Amino acid sequence: MSGGLLVAGTTSDAGKSVLTAGVCRWLHRQGVRVAPFKAQNMSNNSAIAIDALGNGGEIGRAQALQAAACGLESDVRFNPVLLKPGSDMSSQVVLLGEAVGDITADNFRELRPRLAETAFATLADLRRDFDVVVCEGAGSPAEINLRDTDFVNMGLARQAGLPVIVVGDIDRGGVFASLFGTLALLSPEDQDLISGFVINKFRGSAELLAPGLSMLHSLTGRQVLGTLPFDLDLWLDAEDSLAYGRVLGRPAPPVGEDWLRVAVVRLPRISNATDAEALACEPGVSVRFTIEPAEIAEADLVILPGSKSTVADLTWLRESRLADAIMDHAAAGKPLLGICGGFQMLSRTIYDDVESGAGAVGGLGLLDVDITFEQRKHLGRPEGTALGHPISGYEIHHGRVSRRADGLAPFVGEDGCTDGNVFGTHWHGAFESDGFRREFLRLAAWLAGRSGFTVAGTTSFAAAREATLERLGDLVEHHLDTTALRRLIDAGPPTGLPFVPPGAPTQHATGARA
């Protein structure tokens, strides 16, 4: 049997995705044939992967980054079940890359056996093809209300016999209670697989932390495999940290006299928000996610990003008065870009009997096109030219342009178009093409009247992403007990680990089964 590991977390955004990517890059550096795996991801940040027949399919964006850490192209097997929330009560189910229906609280137990069977079979297939598979859990393994249907955390670990390490975010506070409580809430059989802990986002004195690490080891019998430092540079391809008002990345000072201020509307069901990351890599470009009309008014460039629920989010735009701010921004002649769902919102009319079932809905009317939703989702990795530069991207959408007024200039892709200062495209990832990104920023700065803004001309987004992956590998190599980690991967969970009953944490675990 090939080696394996499951990286679990005390919470969402504890650091599972980045630690998984870091372990993958560390193993890849050693010549290990390693692959990532997440049995089920719930995210509207997706990427295009290739299935066994060479067709395009969807996986979570984090698994695409982890694949790159392994030196691999994305594969639908790396994330066999992807749930894309369209509302608080339902999600679209993407199974091995293909949308197959919706899941709700009412039909989950009916669909769960099929999803679990697919996930277990896919992991077994990967373990036959690779030396090591590094699995990522979801949420927390201590979500005890969901344990009997779980196939991504301890359910997966039990089925595949995987050792589990649990990562906790010390920056949130309460990390020792979170780690201890996660273990204590598990059954004895699940606890047998919890093989160690990792503390993430630490800043401060290691000497002050050391007694806590020792006490946690004493209380649980599990080793703390290491402490990862807080690192502000680890922001690319983040899935769970798009806070309102958050400035993306660490913007470098401008080359010229002016900054270019970019406002990305933080839609309730935002998808593929990572489209703006390449802009944030450029010196002098400040990218902020916002739900504030005042920040829209102050921005030079406004971006309406993708949405899993175009019509519902368009309604929200209007109810929140953000639509008025966007219209005023465009009326002032400043640049406005809609990407995928955001592009659809800029249209005259949206005909949607597929996603929302709302039928004909009026758009913002800033681009003279109509959008019609089709049953089959359009997936692809297109290439072309735009603004005089080669460009590539990926498409994931039901809506297609069904009517386009004569005279609209082309922009990016077959459907894409522009009318003066308003731009629309269905292509995600277009700004990762360096030449096109620079030319668009020059055009945006000119339209916004930012004559003092200068594009650096040397930024490589591919190099920035590779540097992130190398940094993740360095963090694992330099801050974790890699000897112990490799032993777990190769030999599986150690035997004789004590059972930790829920109870007073002042008593040391004895190994006795309650």
Automatic annotation (TrEMBL):
User: Which residue intervals define the domain CobB/CobQ-like glutamine amidotransferase in the entry?
Assistant: 261-435
- One matching Pfam family, short form? CbiA
Q: Which keywords accompany this UniProt record? A: Cobalamin biosynthesis, Glutamine amidotransferase, Ligase
Q: Which domain of life is it from?
A: Bacteria
The biological processes this protein is annotated with in GO are:
cobalamin biosynthetic process
Classification via InterPro entries: Class_I_gatase-like, CobQ/CobB/MinD/ParA_Nub-bd_dom, CobQ_GATase1, CobQ_N, CobQ_synth, GATase_3, P-loop_NTPase
Pathway per the UniProt entry: Cofactor biosynthesis; adenosylcobalamin biosynthesis
Q: Where are the membrane-spanning stretches?
A: none
Quote the catalytic residue positions.
C340, H428
Keyword Ligase carried by entry: yes
- Where in this chain does the record put each CobQ/CobB/MinD/ParA nucleotide binding domain? 6-234
Q: Which family does it belong to?
A: Belongs to the CobB/CobQ family. CobQ subfamily.
What is this protein's function per UniProt? Catalyzes amidations at positions B, D, E, and G on adenosylcobyrinic A,C-diamide. NH(2) groups are provided by glutamine, and one molecule of ATP is hydrogenolyzed for each amidation.
Instruction: Please give the name of this protein.
Output: Cobyric acid synthase
Q: Which organism is it from?
A: Allocatelliglobosispora scoriae
Gene name linked to the record: cobQ
